[in-house]
Each structure stands twice: as C-alpha cells, then as structure tokens.
Here is the input.
Amino acid sequence: MTRGLLLSLLFHISGFIKAQPPYAGTIFIDPDIVTASDPSALQSTSYTGRGPVTMYDRRIPGWATVNAYLFDVVWNDGLTSVAQVNPEFGTLDLATLEAEKYAYLIGQLPTCLREDVDEIWIHQGNEPFGGGNNSILIHTGLSAEYENSGILEETLVHEASHTSLDATHAATPGWINAQKMDKQFISTYARDNPTTEDIAESYLTWLAVRHRPSSISASDFTKIVQTIPNRLAYFDSIPCNLYPFVQSTRINNPQMPTLIIYPNPVLKHLIIETEQSEPYTFRLYDMLGQDVTHLVSKNGNMLNVALLSSGYYFLRINDHIFKVYKL
Here is the structure.
C-alpha cells in the first residue's frame, strides 16, 4: 500500500459517522446463507503421503513445521488445493476424515473465494479460524461450536474472503471510496478493524442480499442494503464466479404460505399468487437499497412496474423477499 493511499484511507475512516453498526459480526446474522445441503464443487481428495510443512497454529501462537498428512484436493471447476493435516490426529483414517470434510465444505464456496486457497491447514484446538497467506486455517475444536450454531459455512466464507479478496480489493480506490460514501460499517468487528476485516465482514452480507435474500429476515435485508449500499455496489461491479453457490434453490420456510411471482424477468405487469387469505403488503428496493415503491402501482394481484428502469430489484412481500429483473 502506498503512503498516499494509506493516509487517504486513515483520513476518510476518521470521518465516519459514529453510528452503531447493526451487527457485532456478520457470520452470526443467519445460519442459512450457506447450509450443509448446498452443492459442493469437490471432485476428489487424494492422500499423497507425509511430509514436512510449515503452518500457522494459533495455539502457539506462531508458525510450526510438522510432518503432516497431505491430501491433493481437486474441485470440479478446475481449482486445486492441498489439505495439510497436523499429525496430532494420530492415524491416516482420522486425518482423511478431516481432509475430506473441509475439502467438501470449502468446495461449497464460490469459485472466486477459492481461487487463492492453495493450502488448507487443519489442527486440533479450540482456536479461531483464519484466512490469508493463500490458505484457510482451521482449528477443529472451534468447528464443533460453529457447527452447533449452524455458522460453519458462513465462517468459511468470511475466511476465504480474506484469502481471495483482501489483497486485490481492500486498498483499491474503489473500495475506499465505497467505505467513504457509506459512512458506516456493517459490524463492530469491521468498524474496529477497518483495513483488515471490512471486506470479509461485508462480502458475506452481499452474498445474502444479492443471491440468497430468502435466507435472511426482511429486517436483516433492509439493515444490510441501507447500511452499506455502496460496498454492495462495489461487489456488484467486480467479476466473481459464484459456482456452485448460485446453483442452489431452497424453500427455507415450508410452513409459510406459498408465494409465487411471475413473469421474471418482467416487462410491465408482475403477477403475485399467494395461499394466504390476508391482504399482502409490499415494498420494492433497487440494488442500492433505495425504496422505489412509489414507482409501482397495485391492482389486485398485479403490480404495474412499467415506470421502473431496467435492472435488478428486490421485492419484499410481507416477510418474503424476491429478486426481480425488470426488462
């Protein structure tokens, strides 16, 4: 990072509005942004023998060289990695279970978050995960807590964002300008670590509101799009292959009344079908989180969206959120 860019970054951070961020940390927002039922790009995990490797271990804390169990990981989008399992697991069978487990879970992440994951470091111990250094650091003791809370996959998104996005984007003028325009942070963790945690804290929320809006509550959706609209727009603008994440379609609340909207994409009239007997209410937001409901007229089960500009919108009907493309 150049001295001028660093000074600019520090200057604009000091001028942020002192608003309390809506979240402490974004991995805790909702356990259903990525779930165990999502597809994985994992193709194979192959044991290649033992060998000396240097991995970071938070229990030290520091670097350690160990005679690790080594596994070649191949994902079906052409990416590869090496899982390095600490010999403390004791046997090849136990090491294989760990390597296969995390190769599958990391394979659920978008291609663009795995591009720089050259190594997967797996240790025992109840310590936080880590990202960066072209690797993802895993301590399996804390994995159990993440799994019990349903946020293991969301945590891996966060760490992979460090590994594959930070170096390319965190110090760019575009990202710094997005931070400056938003004037606030999505979480206290991002606010307290603006140069190191803001990308990872924000990217998970971008995946949620742009590609899994039905996985989060309507109130969380509104908080996110209104707190960091310019960061969301920045992520919209960068190329990012989301395979296999975008393949999954889920019904998260099967007990809720059915809601169907069509056609989508829509040119003029959007039809809403619902099993609920009570009248529905709706709000419409553009990609920056701005409420554009006033541009839509309602007639029975039909919304006239002819006045909208072409592009993506988010339609909130009661507590359901749909992504709609206006032609």
Remarks:
- The CA atoms of residues 45 and 101 lie 10 Å apart.
